[in-house]
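#struct-help
A.M.: can someone run this one for me? Single chain, 211 residues.
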Amino acid sequence: MNIADLRKSYERAELSETDSHADPLLQFDQWLNEAIKTEVPEPNAMTLATVASNLRPSTRVVLIKGYDERGIVWYTNYESQKGIELAGNPFAALQFHWVELERVVRIEGRVEKVSAEESDAYFHSRPLDSRIGAWASPQSQVISGRTVLVANAARYGAQFMLKPPRPPHWGGYRLVPDQWQFWQGRKSRLHDRLRYTQQADGGWLRERLAP
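D.P.: on it. Structure tokens below:
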């Protein structure tokens, strides 16, 4: 099979200026809840793009853990590649792709750490194995094999038992959006694409972009 011949006609829905929300957070809330209700695989998965000091971009998939008018939240190791890159360049981009709904959401903005209280609250809500894993994995570092992780997990499990504290190198980030894009697949590749750009007064300018 020639991969260039793989095609799909997008015909599930449409996205118009009149039917979309004026506030992009409300539009995102509607689409995310529709993705959850229709049981698309991992509707909470999002691609995070960061840029290193050498200007090379990198991406990875993380899970959204909260969102409100302040921004989009996820949790990770602050000493990971993404953490190091965000420390040097706090601007990032997120993307959700809900294939079954033929929808994409892109979000750009500045990233900040959430408060220690927020990180503590989420960390202690996690399963015990995940809390031990936050200690056991030196994320993004080279290791000699999986046995390193297993040994680390055993060591920290014995040390902390049922009450591991939140590691000082682990916590939340919040992307504060200044631009959103909503993409709805349409027939003949004439897709619907709306961009919201934050204005000086805090409001949002909604514009249609050519696909």
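A.M.: thanks! The two ends are 27 Å apart (CA to CA).
D.P.: also worth noting: The beta strands are 45-51, 57-63, 66-68, 71-77, 91-98, 103-113, 170-184, 192-198, 204-208.
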